[in-house]
Amino acid sequence: MSSTEVAAQVANMYDTILILDFGSQYSHLITRRIREAGVYCELLPCTQKISELKFKPKGVVLSGSPYSITDKDAPHVDPEVFNLGVPILGICYGLQEIARNLGGETSLAVKREYGHAELTLDPQADHHSYHLFQDVPSPTNVWMSHGDHLESPPNDFVIIGSTSTSAYAAVAHTTLPIYGIQFHPEVTHSVDGSVILRNFVIGICQCEANWTMSSFVDKELERIRNLVGPTGSVIGAVSGGVDSTVAAVLMKRAIGDRFHAVLVDNGVMRLNECEQVKKTLADNLGINLTVADAADLFLGRLKGVTDPERKRKIIGNTFIEVFETESHRIDEISRQSGLGPIEWLLQGTLYPDVIESISFKGPSATIKSHHNVGGLLENMRLKLIEPLRELFKDEVRALGTLLDIPDELVWRHPFPGPGIAIRVLGEVTPEQVEIARRADHIYIDEIKKAGLYRQISQAYAALLPVRSVGVMGDQRTYEQVIALRAVESKDFMTADWFPMPVETLKRISNRIINEVQGVNRVLYDVSSKPPSTIEFE
Predict the structure, then answer these.
(1) Which stretches does DSSP call E strand in 82-153?
(2) Worst-scoring range by mean pLDDT, 17-26, 37-46, 81-90, 375-384?
(3) Rounded to two decimals, what is the model's pTM?
(4) Rounded to the nearest 10 degrees, what angle do helices 393-402 and 213-228 cross at?
(5) Dihedral sign for Cα atoms in the order 112, 116, 120, 126
(6) Catalytic pick among 28, 184, 370, 371
(7) C-alpha distances in angstroms, 300 versus 316, 318, 429, 437?
(8) Residue among 84, 1, 7 nearest 45 (CA)
(9) Closest CA to 399 of 223, 256, 251
(10) Whole-number Cα distances in Å, 440 to 35, 88, 140, 241, 506
(11) Which of 43, 185, 197, 352 has the largest count of CB atoms under 10 Å?
(12) Are β-strands 88-91 and 178-181 bridged in parallel, bridged antiparallel, or unpaired?
């Protein structure tokens, strides 16, 4: 089953808002804000053909874009979106796209507008546009980020908001529920932005605010049972992280012993990871678990490889190959015991994984292939099942709590599929992995002792491909460098570096240099996402 079909299945369970993405850096925030209002939404590229849409949305949001509407290769929406007969909200570029399709005029602004602006509202109480700004004070502070502006609105549109530099900062059709706003309500700088989006999806689109993990879990369990059938079995990758653990518990509840968890020891896991995962999943949560020792196979294929994309592809392909081998073996056992054949592969894809891997032009010219959606074999025998595909990380954690998974697991920091291989910059060898692994263990241990672990969204130690001069025991050293990374993030689409207390950094640095042989320098990364990514590779 394709990701599009999975998305359609979930979308058809709820009142759904369709977000058409024109490539804006803020598009994922629109999704977050609408979800926070308790309404399900699905983000698709703006090139989505409406005739091929697998669900009927209750409303449509057109996102912003880094493009100018006047660019020769600017992206445009399928005009059929205006024939869906549902409310439409255009944000920034989306406003200009509405104007382009319905007869308005846009032009390059004399000066690009970026930053705070004061929006004065002018909705009339007897006009439907009143509902968009209900409970929003006038004036209100909003966030602008645009180089084009609306020169004149289409016929039958009225002004419902303006700023000192934008006469048409908010417009609405006189009779149809079509709205355009020049500012970005999805960013926190727009003080009442969440209220505006809530007004649109609930007040205007009449969506039921029933998107909660308590409603999702029962529907997802039913969807899994229907998808797998009464005899089919599922094999699933587990790593001990929150995503794979939640997915595994969800599968066990759905189909019981017909779910088979496999932990692949790829040689690039955290310190004592395999032992801990076995104890947690098999002993504590009662999940059928097989440990496949493939460390030598992975490390052998990674020998001499330094390019991060090749690392990801090698690990992804080898991972699936090992799974195929294990599935054949478990398949025979499953058939003989009457539990049914192995047909499905569980994968812990999250919604940010999906967003990062698509663009308005289809498959993205990606910054990096994502470990959860890239690197899979084209001829993979098993069908994918992705029960968490529609969820953001905070929603996965809420689901984990609902499933009675211990807090220690629910709040565990994410760990990438390629493991320490993408935290060892340069060639991956057993010796380099061990250095990064031990440094990381000390780092996490210290931030837990300092009571900082739950404040940090993700933290890890990376081994850099450089050496530095140092002095230890009155002797000159020329050894390796560890970089520490810690970020704060709600959805991992954006992230800020964590302001680690100096005394904590001192303890971490001192322990790593003294306890990890081969390291004489420790650095702390103070880069945010964007422009940097959370992982180094």
Answers:
(1) 88-91, 105-121, 140-152
(2) 375-384
(3) 0.76
(4) 90
(5) positive
(6) 184
(7) 14, 11, 9, 18
(8) 7
(9) 251
(10) 34, 48, 46, 16, 15
(11) 185
(12) parallel
What is the arithmetic mean of pLDDT over 197-214? 95
- Give me the amino acid identity at 13: M
Measured CA to CA, the distance from residue 53 to residue 47 in angstroms comes to: 11
User: 29, 64 in Cβ contact below 8 A?
Assistant: no
User: What letter does residue 402 receive in the DSSP assignment?
Assistant: H
> Would the pLDDT of 437 be above 70?
yes
pLDDT of 111 reads 59
Alpha helices by DSSP H, 229-307? 242-255, 273-277, 295-302
pLDDT in tens, 383-436: 889 999 989 888 999 999 999 898 888 999 988 889 999 999 999 999 999 999
Whose CA is closest to 251, among 266, 265, 238, 263? Answer: 238
322-334 b/e with 16+ CB inside 10 Å = b? bbbebbeebbeeb
- Give dist(CA 501, CA 514) in Å, integer: 20
Q: Can you read off the two tokens belonging to residue 530?
A: 């964007």
Burial class of residue 454 (count of CB atoms within 10 Å of its CB; 0-12, 13-18, 19+): exposed
Q: Which two tokens stand for residue 282?
A: 């098999």
Is residue 424 within 8 A of residue 537, CB to CB? The reply is: no
Three-state DSSP class for 145?
strand
92 is an active site residue: yes
- Quick one: average pLDDT of 485-511? 92
Note whether 325 and 332 are within 8 A (CB): no
Residue labelled with tokens 């592969």: 345
pLDDT, mean over the chain: 87
Q: Are 180 and 174 in contact (CB under 8 A)?
A: no
Q: Which candidate in 186, 220, 343, 356 is catalytic?
A: 186
Q: How many CB atoms lie within 10 A of CB 216?
A: 23
Q: List the one residue out of 424, 430, 442 whose CA is nearest residue 516.
A: 442
* DSSP notation for 316-349: HHHHHHHHHHHHHHHHHHHHHTTS--EEEEE---
Structure tokens at 113: 């507008």
Give me the catalytic one of 41, 42, 46, 92: 92
Judged against a pLDDT cut of 90, whether residue 380 lies above it is answered with: no
Cα–Cα distance for residue pair 310/67, rounded to 1 Å: 31
